[in-house]
Design goal:
The protein is mainly alpha-helical and 164 residues long. It has 7 helices and 4 strands; from the N terminus they run ααααββααββα.
């Protein structure tokens, strides 16, 4: 069971902005979009930085195609074990995947893909190593600031591969 939870967190961290949709366990779930209503630390962060303008103005593209940037990250205490092909299959594959989920719940109006990158990064069977251990970023507790730090660390690690 512990390995399932670790894999779920690793996948959630990898998905980054889509992490809330990928987490299968409360142990490692990213913050709920309306977390600010029930958390003092999140409420303070929203007051300081304002609502997320991307989330507030999110719209489905006219053609229904959405591209997901996926950064595979791991930690010194929980190294990544899945291949790029395995993870991309879970996200964008023909069978049960993130893409098939969105296609189903949108009644075929939304297609999710890896976009121009053709899947997750890095493009080889490797992972971006985060500077802190997995537990630092959350481990079942709500740490909005640390979730934000995880996204920053992931983007910093991928900066040479992705033109942000």
């Amino acid at each position: 069971m512990r390995h399932h939870r670790i894999d779920t967190f690793r996948l959630a961290a990898t998905v980054g902005l889509l992490a809330a949709l990928m987490a299968g366990s409360a142990y490692a779930a990213p913050p709920h979009p309306r977390l600010w209503e029930s958390s003092d630390s999140a409420r303070k962060a929203y007051e300081a930085f304002g609502a997320d303008p991307v989330r507030a103005s999110a719209q489905l593209q006219p053609d229904g195609r959405e591209f997901a940037l996926v950064l595979r990250v791991d930690f010194s205490d929980t190294p990544g074990v899945r291949s790029r092909a395995q993870l991309d299959g879970y996200l964008f594959g023909e069978g049960v995947s993130l893409a098939s989920y969105f296609a189903e719940v949108s009644y075929g109006k939304m297609t999710v893909s890896g976009g121009p990158g053709g899947g997750s990064y890095p493009r080889r069977d490797a992972w971006y190593r985060m500077p802190k251990m997995m537990g630092y970023y959350g481990e079942g507790r709500i740490f909005v600031e640390r979730y934000q730090e995880l996204v920053k660390h992931a983007c910093d690690a991928a900066d040479a591969d992705v033109d942000f």
